[in-house]
């Protein structure tokens, strides 16, 4: 039997009252694949993320993480998920180490395992020496690195990132984009990255363009360029969203 | 999902809250200043104006300061319960509530852990307050400090659950100020915290009824009796029922399919 997709979304629709925020969304993400979710403001990205993280309940359609239904088997599904939210969700008055230990406690890890994982993830992001510093003392880029480390502590199969580079300078941004792409390739993690920055998209990435709650494109970057008959992702996006700025 | 997982998660949530509380010195001090001002200033001023007849659990005439001490313990817990829920509204606005809600544990358990964390902080505050009150000659039987612990836990849970329920309804921090005025002050003043029921009855039958059915009154009475080594069964059952009702409503409020979360549209 083949391995289930890291994320499988089938016939997903969602409304706020009469306003349809998502309309018949279907896509899959496989292990090791980096998928970029592009969409202008109001496209439905945040709603989609709220549904995948089970903050909202799925009413129409189906979301599965590694074969576990988010509605029926939410705990098993959530155990497979690592999330980096758009806003910083670290406790500023606690140290990096305390923040990460809190996360390991929520995932039921023993102290020994937590220590190992924290060291492993922070070392990969060159943050291990700063583990006893208060988060408040870190710059934006370093805070983001800590959040990525936190999202990976419990070894998730799917990493969800909601515009994680907003407000960062160019070198910090590049650093994070490179790191996450490497993670997908080397650690076989599936990545779903909501973004509005074209330079965060690599040629091998999978691209989903969401516009007014509808998927306008869902393919590799090359395929999307061919389908829209343009040379750059920027142009393709513009064509698919009728010129709406991202 | 093992018992160990639940235990570690709950310890993590409670430990984090306690650590935050002791390291935030301003919060610690301001939590104590409020009841101490009431004790040192308000009660001292009212001592002459209010005559209190002997009524259980007191076996002799008491000073007004002694009477309002359990009420001020309740005040600490009431403010703390509301403050924890305020921090939950803040956490939700800032997104850190999401990190809690996406961990692989049942939501009721996460909310209960959060509630226990807030209660632990409030109990700590009450004990520090009682220690200062003792230095001020509010002498409570030594055993009372032990007996009062379960009473404080139950009343802290009940008031925290009420705060939790309110936080599930409130969309933004700005709306919270209004709720504070409509919940904290009426609850506190229409209770037995500052004046005994019979005294309220003398002035207004309506107020008497409101105070009698106010769950905060029952929490205060439970604490008052426990401080003197007595068990007030009626207050205990009333507080317990209020806790169950508030907690159940809060869990429904935070349920992704049934509650208010659905009505709080996230930013796109």
Describe this structure in words.
The complex is a heterodimer of chains A (246) and B (268). Chain A is α/β, with parallel strands linked by helices and 246 residues long. Chain A folds into 2 domains: 1-80 and 156-246, Rossmann fold (3-Layer(aba) Sandwich), CATH 3.40.50; 88-152, no CATH class. In chain A, 35% of the residues lie in helices and 25% in strands. Chain A is built from 8 helices and 10 strands. Chain A has helices spanning 45-52, 74-78, 96-106, 111-124, 140-152, 170-187, 221-228, 233-240; strands spanning 7-16, 19-29, 34-38, 60-65, 68-69, 81-84, 158-162, 190-195, 206-211, 214-220. In chain A, a hairpin with a 2-residue loop joins strand 1 and strand 2 (19-29). In chain A, helix 3 packs across helix 4 and helix 7 crosses helix 8 (233-240). Chain B has 268 residues and is mostly helical. Chain B has one domain (3-257). Helices cover 76% and strands 0% of the residues of chain B. Chain B is built from 11 helices and no strands. In chain B, helix 8 (197-203) packs antiparallel against helix 9. The two termini of chain B are 34 Å apart.
């Amino acid at each position: 039997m083949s391995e289930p997709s890291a994320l499988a979304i089938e016939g997903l629709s969602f409304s706020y009252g009469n306003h349809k925020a998502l309309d018949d969304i279907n896509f899959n993400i496989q292990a090791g694949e980096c998928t970029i979710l592009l969409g202008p403001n109001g496209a439905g990205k945040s709603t989609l993320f709220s549904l995948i993280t089970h903050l909202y309940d799925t009413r129409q359609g189906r979301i599965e993480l590694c074969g576990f239904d988010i509605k029926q088997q939410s705990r098993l599904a959530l155990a497979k998920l690592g999330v980096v939210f758009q806003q910083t969700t670290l406790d500023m008055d606690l140290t990096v180490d305390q923040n990460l230990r809190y996360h390991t406690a929520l995932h039921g890890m023993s102290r020994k395992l937590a220590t190992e994982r924290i060291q492993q993830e922070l070392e990969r992001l060159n943050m291990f020496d700063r583990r006893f510093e208060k988060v408040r003392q870190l710059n934006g880029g370093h805070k983001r690195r800590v959040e990525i480390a936190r999202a990976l502590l419990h070894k998730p199969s799917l990493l969800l990132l909601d515009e994680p580079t907003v407000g960062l300078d160019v070198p910090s941004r590049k650093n994070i984009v490179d790191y996450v792409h490497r993670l997908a390739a080397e650690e076989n993690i599936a990545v779903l990255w909501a973004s509005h920055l074209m330079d965060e998209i690599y040629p091998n990435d999978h691209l989903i363009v969401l516009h007014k709650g509808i998927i306008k494109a869902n393919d590799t970057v090359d395929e999307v360029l061919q389908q829209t008959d343009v040379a750059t992702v920027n142009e393709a996006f513009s064509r698919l969203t009728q010129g709406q700025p991202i | 999902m093992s018992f160990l997982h639940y235990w570690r998660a709950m310890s993590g949530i409670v430990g984090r809250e306690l650590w935050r509380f002791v390291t935030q010195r301003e919060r610690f001090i301001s939590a104590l200043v409020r009841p101490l001002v009431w004790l040192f200033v308000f009660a001292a001023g009212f001592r002459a104006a209010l005559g209190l007849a002997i009524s259980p659990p007191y076996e002799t005439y008491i000073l007004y300061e002694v009477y309002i001490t359990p009420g001020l313990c309740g005040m600490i817990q009431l403010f703390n319960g509301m403050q924890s829920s305020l921090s939950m509204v803040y956490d939700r606005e800032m997104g850190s509530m999401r990190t809690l809600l996406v961990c692989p544990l049942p939501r009721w358990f996460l909310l209960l852990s959060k509630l226990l964390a807030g209660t632990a902080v409030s109990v700590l505050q009450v004990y520090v307050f009682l220690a200062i009150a003792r230095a001020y000659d509010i002498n409570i039987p030594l055993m009372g400090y032990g007996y009062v612990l379960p009473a404080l836990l139950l009343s802290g849970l009940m008031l925290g659950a009420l705060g939790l329920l309110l936080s599930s309804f409130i969309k933004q921090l700005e709306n919270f100020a209004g709720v504070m005025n409509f919940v904290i002050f009426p609850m506190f003043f229409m209770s037995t915290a500052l004046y005994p029921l019979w005294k309220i009855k003398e002035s207004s039958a309506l107020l008497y009824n409101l105070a009698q059915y106010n769950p905060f009154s029952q929490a205060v009475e439970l604490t008052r009796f426990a401080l003197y080594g007595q068990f007030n069964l009626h207050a205990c059952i009333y507080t317990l029922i209020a806790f169950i009702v508030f907690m159940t409503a809060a869990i429904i409020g935070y349920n992704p399919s049934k509650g208010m979360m659905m009505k709080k549209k996230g930013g796109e």
